[in-house]
Amino acid sequence: MLDYIEQTPTSLLEHRGEYDAIIGWSLGGVLARQLLKKDMVEAKALISIAAPYQFVRDEHYSDAMPKDTFELFYNNFQT
Fold first, then answer.
1. Separation of alpha carbons 36 and 21, rounded Å
2. What is the pTM of this model?
3. In this structure, are residues 40 and 16 in contact, taking their beta carbons and an 8 Å threshold?
4. Could you report how far apart the first and last alpha carbons of the chain are, in Å?
5. 8 to 31, 58, 59, 60: CA distances (angstroms)
6. Cβ–Cβ < 8 Å for 7, 77
7. Is residue 72 predicted with pLDDT exceeding 80?
8. Taking phi first (over 0 means left), then psi (-120 to 50 degrees means alpha), and beta for anything else, what does residue 16 get?
């Protein structure tokens, strides 16, 4: 996921700033967590609803979506 966060859509970066709270649901919760971690936004609180620990499967976390499925999702989101 960190690789993809580097390619953040410009529309999202237009909303950079400091917030009282960032709220994310599912993939949005993962994205919110990464945006805070990368210091792309600042917030006093993160509210993450039903966000998995990790969204893309790897050798350490098998309860996530396969990488090729995520890449297809990501590529379709970009267009």
1. 11
2. 0.62
3. yes
4. 18
5. 10, 22, 26, 26
6. no
7. yes
8. beta
DSSP states of 4-49:
HHTT--HHHHTT-SEEEEEEEETHHHHHHHHHHHTTSSEEEEEEEE
What tens digit of pLDDT does each residue of 3-61 get? Answer: 555 555 566 666 677 889 999 998 888 888 888 888 888 899 999 999 888 888 999 98
Residue-level pLDDT at 24: 92
17: which 2 tokens?
């700033």
Instruction: Using the structure block, give the residue that is written with the tokens 């919760």.
Output: 29
